[in-house]
Amino acid sequence: MARRGRRTGGSPIPARRPTGPANPRGRELIADTALRLFLERGYDDVGVREVAQEADVATATLFAHFPSKEALVFDQDGEQEQLLLDAVRNRPDGVSVPQTLRGWFHQMVEAARNEPKLSRFHQLIEDTPALREYSAGMWRRHENALAEIIATDIGLPAPDTACRLVARTALEIIPSIRSLDDAAQIIDVSFAFIEAGWAATAAPATA
Fold it and tell me: CA-to-CA distance for 75 and 106, rounded, in angstroms?
């Protein structure tokens, strides 16, 4: 659940949105400044204007990069989506889609568990209802893209029910995690169901 080794979250894996024509470094500076202040003082105790002042940018500039305060925290969701899709696309021969996703989620949890700053980021999300809700929505936004890449990867012209169910169920796992202590068990139990359903409904060649 990492943000280039700097952040993560149990529920939300931080992710930076693709940058537009504006200065990418300025965007990154704003996001990093926001995270530092949120971790130091708490999300609810830091205002958007204060983030802008600390980053030495106008409030209008901040909102040109980030549509909401919550988006400051999840600033790499476009990159995160690409990593997710690449994991499926580039998986080894003989490894199913659910197995690949299961391993990918476990790697994110281990990154959060082993890096203190990432663990603090995870806790920030869990302690902040607005961020938990935004995180869940962020993961749901990846559903169509994941279902599409699964279908393409197994040779279907469009996602079928199995592809969509795998994508939807897998992406609901991370928002359901409330503690890194039980994350591995939640992932394993959830994917046991996903893998069983995939084996029963997917074409034999894709299982």
Answer: 22
Token pair belonging to 32: 């990093």
Angle in degrees, CA 133, 121, 15, rounded to 5 = 65
- Cβ neighbours of 56 (radius 10 Å): 11
Predicted TM-score (pTM) of this structure: 0.72
pLDDT per position in the chain (207 positions), as tens? 333 333 333 333 443 333 333 455 688 999 999 999 999 999 999 999 999 999 999 999 999 999 999 999 988 777 888 888 999 999 998 899 999 999 999 988 888 777 777 778 888 988 899 998 998 888 888 999 999 999 988 889 999 998 999 999 999 888 888 777 888 899 999 999 999 988 887 654 444
